[in-house]
Design a protein that fits this description.
Strands 2, 4, 5, 6, 9, 10 and 11 form a 7-stranded mixed β-sheet that branches. The chain has a 4-stranded antiparallel β-sheet with strand order 1-3-8-7, with no helix packed on it. It starts with a strand and ends with a strand. A hairpin with a 4-residue loop joins β7 and β8. The protein is globular, with a radius of gyration of 14 Å. With 133 residues, the chain is mostly beta strands. The protein has no helices and 11 strands.
Length: 133
């Protein structure tokens, strides 16, 4: 079974930046679509961004972003380190949440499938991001 561990969270002032990491063990992330989700207090978990698998199986390849973070967040992967990153710039107080990464082995050409937590097989424990002055 794959294990995922997030790191890089913390407290930052509005306009600041953080880079979250999602490191995997026991299975290569190249075989998975990896998504970042966040959950703020009193709110439902929402998809922030996801990046397709890179093992050659046809899949929606392009990184995808929620409209609320588009232009500010960038998702990327380092296959050699078996890690997926979420670079978060120009952070706003409304970005405050627990951020979790998840890996999906689901194969589909429909990118909207990865909005749902149902298609993800493995989850990390989450890392807190707090944006405040």
């Amino acid at each position: 079974q794959m294990q995922l561990v997030e790191s890089g969270g913390g407290q930052v002032q509005p306009g600041g930046s953080l880079r979250l990491s999602c490191s995997a063990s026991r299975l290569s992330l190249t075989h998975a679509t990896v998504g970042w989700f966040r959950q703020a207090p009193g709110k439902e978990r929402e998809a922030v961004s996801w990046i397709g698998r890179t093992d050659g199986i046809p899949n929606y390849p392009d990184p995808t972003y929620a409209s609320s973070v588009k232009g500010r967040f960038t998702i990327s992967r380092d296959n050699a380190k078996n890690t997926v990153y979420l670079q978060m710039n120009d952070l706003k107080p409304e970005d405050t949440a627990v951020y979790s990464c998840a890996a999906s082995l689901y194969i589909t050409r429909d990118p909207t499938s990865f909005l749902s937590t149902d298609v993800y097989d493995y989850w990390g424990q989450g890392t807190q991001v707090t944006v405040s002055s």
